[in-house]
């Protein structure tokens, strides 16, 4: 149900009770993936991320270097990693130099498609993945690209048949938010074209949905079109009868997708693993983050001292209370009148984010677990009730905190999310 | 006809033409022979995109389906300075299903409709196995063989030809009234679901002897009155339900295993 996007630094071993892991090609190069045993999760996925083939090799050399280490990106002449020849860091540096000169910024050609798809399928099978994600390019501009993505799915299905794999093949549907307009959501519109292309392929076990954002935004603040794509595709694939409908990079909206029929969702411990922002993939150093408390009842994030403490002082704590193993101390302290600074794991200092990160993931795990015991109708009811309450909580917080905060809490557009759930569940 | 004479002069010795069977915007079909056997010989207009014709003809030559007319060969001829694509298919003199729509013809029975659905559904599924979409399924493009089989004709060739038409006329390819909504909207990347709709509309028209939209297309969800299907004789509720599903506006809601559905109704 809930699956963690595993990054370079934050690993699945940092968290407990995970249902599964998505290893991302952009975060883990081929050498790293080959040299480590995978953990034993119920769902073990590897996303080949062919949809990132359009990145700029100069601006995003670090990520492109990791991607280029996989054969399905068809980058010729990549330096081999030979441990006796030098350090891993030197190899990564050489890879970055190589992609700056050789990364095409395009998916492989039609002639290369079958071979590239087969290599991605074989890699996942070899690593013991429980589902095989068909690599597909990003649908970013035109209707033709939906058909091209479907041809990649065909190639992956053929490869899986030839390898006689037992795992289900899942269609990756990666769409750029830039491709959409209002007409896309109409019956017969662009998204139905995409659904038509996917569902007309016999032998698929489901859909893996990714929406790429063109801007750099907070994961909770995806534009309305982005969350609507997730809702639209989730519902369409669930109605079609797929057993495996998986949503990635939708962050907490993934919970709403479970209500709409998704069988699982993934998000991650860092912003870059929570949403897919093409603008955030540039080679630039990140800042040192401050701890934010994620509150599921309010679908918001709050700076641990400057915001959470004010909320507590204004007797609004129950609106954001969200207790997990990692936030219990914080709420106990606040409820007994102590300061956040008295709880070292939540003190608002740079990079003191371990507890906040683990709390967020623990909340996603716990929430998904609750849903897993419910029928489809009950899931929809639970998701609707959650969003209903969140709308009320947010409204209350915004009104009661007006003029009392020097910073701005990060709220998800709960009302918009609720509309999606209502509209797509009818 | 000067063109026919010119054509005869450039055809290979084992292919002959006798008389035209029909002419459309895409080209002309002649009755003739190939290695002495009756054949339908289609001559495409010179403006056709030959690469696409070649690709689909090559796919079609590899198909073996008793419900899809067999493509025997394809080649080019040059008349003057113009290149023409010739596609030779087997010929079935039994006639197409247009006649079943005439008021003077016996009404299609439930068994007829299920047989057409099963056999043409099998043809559609076989084509889709090679990722070919017919794009022009309608009564005139379904013929009856001497042994009683129904076969799809004009297979897979509509695509590139119709794209030429699209450029010329600014409209959508296919035949008005039988096009799926997505085809009528001008979508190019169609799937088997589009052919399923067209076959559903064909069955509706054969059963009701009238078109639900007055021979027009729909591009927005539009309710269909299914009463005419059973107005003149009973049809089983499962068959009517299946035709309804085939005519769903949204492609993914149409039945994905058409042959299985028709087989469950007692198809051959």
Short structural description:
The complex is a heterodimer of chains A (426) and B (268). Chain A is α/β, with parallel strands linked by helices and 426 residues long. Chain A contains 15 helices and twelve strands.
Oligomer: heterodimer
Question: What best-fitting shape of chain A do the alpha-carbon axes yield?
Answer: globular
Annotation field: number of helices of chain B: 8
Largest interface: A-B, 20 and 20 residues
Q: What would the average pLDDT of chain A be, to the nearest integer?
A: 93
CATH superfamily of the largest domain in chain B: Transferase(Phosphotransferase) domain 1
CATH class of the largest domain in chain B: Mainly Alpha
Approximately how much beta-strand content do the residues of chain B carry?
15-25%
Total discrete domains of chain B: 2
Sequence stretches where pLDDT stays below 50 over 5 or more residues of chain A: none
Largest sheet of chain A: 9 strands, parallel
* Fraction in helix of chain A: 40-55%
The CATH first-level class of the largest domain in chain A comes to Alpha Beta
SSE pattern of chain B:
HEEEHEEHEEHHHHH
Instruction: Just name the CATH architecture of the largest domain in chain A.
Output: Alpha-Beta Barrel
In N-to-C order, the SSE pattern of chain A is EEHEHHHEHEHEHEHEHEEEHHHHHEH
How many H/I helical runs of chain A? 15
- Biggest β-sheet of chain B: count, sense, barrel? 5 strands, antiparallel
How many β-strands of chain B, per DSSP? 7
